[in-house]
Design a protein that fits this description.
11-stranded mixed β-sheet; two-stranded antiparallel ribbon; single chain
Length: 337
């Protein structure tokens, strides 16, 4: 309950389904090799640095062993965190397998590259990892928010210019700089180099052929026409990845678990008025037998008309840890710096 302008407003919260997800986790643990863990993000969530610390909390319950099997569903996020996650998983297991029943995009594709084996189902796909970024000196949209600029977009403009510009025309960068600050272009090129380096380094955890690893990294970063292009299991094999088919029964149970996570990840929005609302939303979930960690956005949003943008207020977002004690769920906050 919260007071807003003298009114008592019941703030909505997302459902916690730890007991139900644990039952599915137990079933899955008996269907896979090694220790079974999950890593799930909603459309509002992303792979980020704090996820590494959260995964460590889960892995502390796991002794170093031969195999960890990880269910991954994510739209992506920070590639450097993907490298750190793979390094952490490799500290606990010699072999890492990744199960992908649905989307495993962008930085999540990077994460999958670190697996000795990728199992994909009929609905699953990877994506390219071409880089796009927001920059403080970048262009803005009609809502006065900075937009993403991609290396592929910049390169295509230059290629078209080279192909169609008449002889003696001005340097294309002179025209391009009218719309994109030189530092933005430099940042995009640098980010692309970083992305290729990350992919190569992640592949090296199991790929002994350096030339093959470089070829896969280059293809994922530069050879696809769209960042959202769905790389199906067949095409992933053609790239050189070790992809096998996800058994039908296992795929169905993973989709069952995803359904529960999606229910937990629904937006719980409480409207105060046309310029203010509260958002409670679980965006990232990690789980193993006996433990679940999730990150919950918990904040007020206010629309500043003079700036034409929403700003967050009273932020209480944090990680939570769920465990079972004496047959009952125990939830505690997990503080990270």
């Amino acid at each position: 309950m919260k007071r807003v302008d003298g009114r008592r407003v019941q703030v909505k919260t997302p459902p916690l389904l730890f007991e139900r997800t644990q039952k599915v986790i137990k079933r899955l643990a008996n269907m896979v090799e090694g220790t079974f863990l999950t890593y799930w993000t909603s459309e509002s969530g992303s792979i980020c640095g704090n996820d590494v610390q959260a995964m460590y909390e889960v892995l502390k319950l796991v002794r170093p062993q031969e195999t960890i099997t990880l269910f991954v569903k994510s739209d992506g996020g920070d590639g450097q965190s993907s490298l750190r996650l793979i390094h952490l998983l490799r500290e606990y297991a010699r072999c890492v397998k990744v199960l992908i029943p649905l989307e495993c995009a962008s930085a999540a594709t990077m994460l999958a590259l670190g697996a000795d084996e990728i199992q994909m189902g009929p609905l699953s796909f990877l994506t390219p990892i071409d880089t796009s970024l927001e920059h403080a000196m970048g262009p803005v949209d009609p809502r006065n928010e900075t937009v993403f600029v991609g290396q592929d977009e910049v390169q295509r403009v230059l290629t078209l210019w080279e192909k169609h510009a008449p002889p003696g025309s001005i340097n294309p960068f002179q025209e391009l700089y009218r719309y994109l600050h030189p530092l933005v272009i430099g940042a995009v090129v640098r980010a692309t180099s970083l992305s290729i380096r990350l992919c190569t380094e992640i592949l090296r955890y199991h790929q002994t052929d350096a030339e093959k690893a470089a070829k896969i990294a280059q293809a994922l970063n530069a050879e696809y026409p769209a960042h959202e292009y769905p790389i199906t299991p067949r095409e992933a094999r053609q790239l050189g990845l070790h992809v096998t088919s996800l058994p039908a029964e296992l795929n169905d149970v993973l989709l069952e678990l995803n359904h529960l996570y999606s229910e937990m990840g629904q937006r719980a929005v409480t409207d105060y008025d046309e310029f203010n609302y509260h958002n409670n939303e679980i965006v990232n979930i990690m789980e193993g037998q006996g433990i679940q960690l999730y990150f919950q956005n918990d904040k007020d949003w206010h629309y500043r008309k003079e700036e034409r943008q929403w700003v967050s207020l009273h932020v209480e977002s944090c990680w939570y840890r769920c465990t079972m004690k004496n047959g009952r769920m125990r939830r505690t906050r997990l503080y990270m710096s």
